[in-house]
Amino acid sequence: MKLTQILATILSAIIKIAVAIWIVNFLYTKTLAAYDFGYRIFTEAPIAPSPGRDVVVSYTEGKSFKDLAKTLEEKGLVRDYKLAMIQMYVSVYKDTIRPGSYTLNTSMTTEEMMKAMSPSKNGSEDDKDKEE
Q1: How far is CA 82 from CA 44, 71, 77, in A?
Q2: What is the tens place of the pLDDT at every residue in 65-109?
Q3: Is the dihedral of CA 47, 65, 127, 124 positive or negative?
């Protein structure tokens, strides 16, 4: 009877250690993934080096940032639409992106693309205000 209790104790300890190792590994990999994603929000490089290739993107009224980010990913302008969508939400261009047809380039960062789609932040509307 003592042998079965000893074996049960050993088996229980092995299972607890295995579960603890799995939990630590899970937390470690998820933490690394979260850090990498957060880091990329502010440091994501363009898809291609200069000169890249031009791509025409249309952004229509009523389209969400998610739709725009998916379009940018489909056209090969960004690697991850989820990352691009978050970049749009935390950007200074968030409220200035306007509907229209834009020629973007694969050598542009997401921030540069948002700037190109934000006429009021490009200086065109600001310059008009200064002239008046």
Answers
A1: 12, 11, 13
A2: 999 999 999 999 999 999 999 999 998 988 888 999 999 999 999
A3: positive
Q: Distances from the Cα of 34 to the Cαs of 10, 31, 43, 78, 80, in angstroms? A: 36, 5, 14, 19, 14
| HSE, side-chain direction, 13 A CA sphere, residue 17 | 6
Its pTM stands at 0.72
Domain presence at residue 5:
yes
Ramachandran quadrant class, 100 (left: phi over 0; alpha: psi -120 to 50; beta: rest): left
In a domain, 131, yes or no: no
List the domain range (segments joined by +) for residue 21.
1-43
